[in-house]
Amino acid sequence: MTLAYIPSPSTGVVHLGPIPLRGYAFCIILGVFVAVWLGNKRWIARGGKPGTVADIAVWAVPFGLVGGRLYHVVTDYQLYFGEGRNWVDAFKIWEGGLGIWGAIALGAVGAWIGCRRRGIPLPAWADALAPGIALAQAIGRWGNWFNQELYGRATDVPWALKITDGPNRVAGTYHPTFLYESLWCVGVALLVIWADRRFKLGHGRAFALYVAAYCAGRGWIEYMRVDEAHHVLGLRLNVWTAIVVFVLAVTYFILSARLRPGRETVVEPDRDPRPTEPADGTKAGAKAGAKAEPETEAGAKAAPQPAQDKLKKS
């Protein structure tokens, strides 16, 4: 008998009149705001301009949402295209289902577009945003709590998560893997902030550290989950993804440290294509012309008189 447990919400939706407020969507939105807020502070501390992180996030966030949903639908296609399933449900993002791997991959494409438009190096921007992304994931995982999804094996530990009967789930108490991952992501954010201050990480290494640390935790947490998933050689697909991405992140970290040690000195060059004008509004060209005119007159006065004029006077 379980004496203590974490209760699940009776519903994941709160209605304000005709407007539904979904817990999953609220957690995602709150996570984005926290990531942009912290990323902006870190970007300014590195010499960047206020608002740049938000400007680039306008590109990165939509791309990330699309990428996260695509990864989830492709890797769990049986949930939407299997027998008795409705493919329209693939578009119902508010019901849960965002793959972090796809979100980061396609979100990086959007960030690259935004950085390119501003003349900013993508690795520097990613370094500034890395701990904020980890915190956004920590907050976003609570959306799974609202939807009663992505829990682990049955258990009777005091912090077990109580799940009620519903579609594709059986009532009972289970490991709260959403909570494990949320706490792990908070730890990852603190690790990146500490390491960045201690070792002055640059050229994408803070972001690589975040990716590697997250994958290390995601591997064992994913192994505990009991929701339906594809398996390869006895391991869940996401476990293999975490292993591969971990190796790639560590490899990048090591090679980057050897090839480009230190940190960027300039992260956002001050480029203003507009011509500078005097405070009185006079154009520079006009003012220069005005100066040239008196010089011409003075030159004319100083010029020697022709010989004919001298004869007339004599």
TrEMBL record:
Annotated localization: Cell membrane
**Segments of this protein annotated with the region Disordered:** 265-314
Q: What UniProt keywords apply to this chain's record, in alphabetical order? A: Cell membrane, Membrane, Transferase, Transmembrane, Transmembrane helix
Pathway info: Protein modification; lipoprotein biosynthesis (diacylglyceryl transfer)
A molecular function (GO) held by this record is: phosphatidylglycerol-prolipoprotein diacylglyceryl transferase activity
According to the lineage, what is the superkingdom?
A: Bacteria
Q: What is its EC number?
A: 2.5.1.145
Q: What is its main location?
A: membrane
InterPro entries xref list? Lgt
Membrane topology qualifier: Multi-pass membrane protein
Membership in a protein family: Belongs to the Lgt family.
Q: What is this protein called?
A: Phosphatidylglycerol--prolipoprotein diacylglyceryl transferase
